[in-house]
């Protein structure tokens, strides 16, 4: 579907998971600046609001000031020092997020050229589940999937069998 310009497996699975739980009539607040997946959501009929590049660890005003029905965060929680504060400030009752999972055979990602493109957290699934529970969310659905790479070697082989991404759909406990 998005073979030429996007990570097709990840985006295709994420879009299907989103469509399973979220109606196009619901406005989405997508954590992070406009990105390839927020554009895919818009191309598929969703109304998407993004943040504007503010430091989300220190500034959650956008979460409180915007009007939205669904909160999404796709591969952004691992870049935050304090995802707990973000989840506490979400003002809607539905969320859908995905994270890269910590891999036992690979260290946390850190760009050598971009000081902001680093993973502060690489979660295990139970850690994200606990974070959501502690901030008042109940997980309704979850999905894990692998992310094979087109390389030869022991670690690329492990990527065929080891889940790399974890997605959850959760609702606020009232």
UniProtKB/TrEMBL annotation:
Keywords: Methyltransferase, Transferase. GO terms for molecular function: methyltransferase activity. InterPro entries: SAM-dependent_MTases_sf. GO terms for biological process: methylation. SUPFAM superfamilies: S-adenosyl-L-methionine-dependent methyltransferases. It comes from the Bacteria. This is Methyltransferase. It comes from Flavobacterium paronense.
């Amino acid at each position: 579907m998005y073979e030429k310009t996007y990570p097709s497996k990840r985006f295709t699975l994420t879009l299907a998971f989103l469509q399973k739980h979220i109606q196009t009539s619901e406005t989405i607040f997508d954590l992070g600046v406009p990105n390839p997946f927020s554009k895919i959501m818009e191309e598929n009929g969703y109304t998407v609001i993004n943040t504007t590049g503010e430091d989300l660890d220190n500034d959650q005003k956008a979460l409180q000031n915007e009007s939205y029905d669904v909160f999404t965060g796709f591969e952004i929680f691992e870049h935050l020092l304090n995802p707990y504060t973000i989840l506490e400030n979400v003002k809607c009752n539905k969320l859908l997020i995905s994270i890269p999972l910590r891999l036992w055979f690979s260290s946390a990602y850190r760009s050598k050229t971009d000081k902001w493109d680093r993973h502060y957290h690489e979660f295990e699934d139970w850690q994200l589940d606990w974070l959501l529970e502690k901030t008042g969310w109940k997980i309704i659905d979850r999905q894990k999937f692998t992310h094979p790479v087109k390389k030869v070697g022991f670690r690329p082989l492990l990527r065929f069998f080891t889940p790399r991404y974890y997605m959850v759909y959760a609702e606020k406990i009232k």
